[in-house]
């Protein structure tokens, strides 16, 4: 009898604690998540003088510690690469080539745009309810946390996992038409985000002769293609002779990745607390 009473009392205490969790702690975590993700969203927008206004331009000097064949400056404006000033030293004859974006061209970095869209969708999920709304079940909170975590994971993955491209896809991406003077036919370039870095890869190509005795094997998709990779563009076959990868750190991308990690941890901690309470009941009141 005493054990049953103790069990009933313990159950009542747990139910009160769980009720407090749903009514108070959940809302505190949601407010914390909103604040963090709004900061993350602002990093992507890079507003000047407040939350509105034009997006500022930032210049980034490419790190040449890995190669001195490519030097340059990239200008980033939000999710757009609005200028690229590149010097390329040709290894065969040490000829120095200089290219810049045409004045009427910008290159959208879809990874940044997609990541910010996922962040904003997570914010929408967190704020899409009445200010006085009360959660009635734990499963309701778990469902919300799963939805928010899905958007944050997608946002993080867009920055940490660049899309693989074939060499013909890079050749037809439009980047070859961005520059003045026009890129020679034996040069390909690709820009992408990897973690907190803006990366530039320059491929120097060797045109294969129709009577070449080389065994032609087209290369599949990759983030970074190696020398020796082959592909066909139009009626011409090419082989990659040299690859130069240079990059620059974008500090606000690093901030965004930290915000994603902290937010995902908060979501998981709240899920874990609700799961602990569920273990005390054989049925599922949550």
Automatic annotation (TrEMBL):
InterPro entries reported for this sequence: RAVE2/Rogdi (IPR028241)
Name of the protein this chain belongs to: Protein rogdi homolog
Biological process terms in GO annotation: bone mineralization; brain development; enamel mineralization; gene expression; hemopoiesis; locomotion; locomotor rhythm; memory
Family per record: Belongs to the rogdi family.
Any single GO CC term annotated in Swiss-Prot or TrEMBL for this entry: nuclear envelope
Highest taxon of the lineage: Eukaryota
Gene for this chain: ROGDI
Source organism (scientific name): Chelonoidis abingdonii
Locations listed in the record: Cytoplasmic vesicle, Secretory vesicle, Synaptic vesicle
Major subcellular location class: cytoplasm
């Amino acid at each position: 009898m005493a054990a049953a009473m103790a069990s009933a009392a313990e159950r009542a205490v747990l139910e009160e604690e769980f009720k407090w969790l749903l009514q108070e702690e959940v809302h505190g975590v949601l407010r914390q998540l909103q604040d963090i993700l709004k900061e993350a969203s602002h990093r992507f927008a890079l507003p000047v003088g407040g939350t509105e206004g034009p997006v500022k331009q930032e210049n980034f000097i490419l790190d040449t510690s890995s190669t001195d064949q490519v030097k340059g400056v990239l200008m980033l404006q939000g999710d757009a690469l609005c200028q690229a000033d590149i010097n390329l030293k040709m290894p065969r004859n040490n000829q120095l080539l200089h290219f810049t974006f045409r004045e009427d061209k910008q290159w959208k970095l879809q990874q940044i745009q997609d990541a910010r869209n996922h962040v904003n969708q997570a914010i929408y999920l967190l704020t899409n309810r009445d200010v006085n709304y009360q959660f009635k079940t734990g499963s309701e909170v778990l469902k919300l946390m799963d939805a928010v975590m899905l958007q944050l994971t997608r946002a993080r993955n867009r920055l940490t996992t660049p899309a693989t491209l074939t060499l013909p896809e890079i050749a037809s991406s439009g980047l070859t038409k961005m520059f003045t003077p026009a890129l020679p036919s034996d040069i390909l370039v690709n820009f992408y985000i990897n973690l907190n870095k803006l990366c530039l890869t320059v491929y120097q190509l060797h045109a294969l002769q129709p009577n070449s005795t080389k065994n032609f094997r087209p290369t599949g998709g990759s983030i970074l293609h190696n020398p020796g990779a082959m592909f066909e563009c139009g009626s011409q076959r090419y082989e990659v002779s040299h690859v130069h990868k240079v990059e620059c750190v974008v500090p606000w991308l690093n901030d965004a990745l930290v915000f994603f990690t902290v937010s995902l941890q908060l979501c998981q901690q709240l899920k874990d607390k609700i799961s602990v309470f569920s273990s005390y009941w054989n049925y599922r009141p949550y």
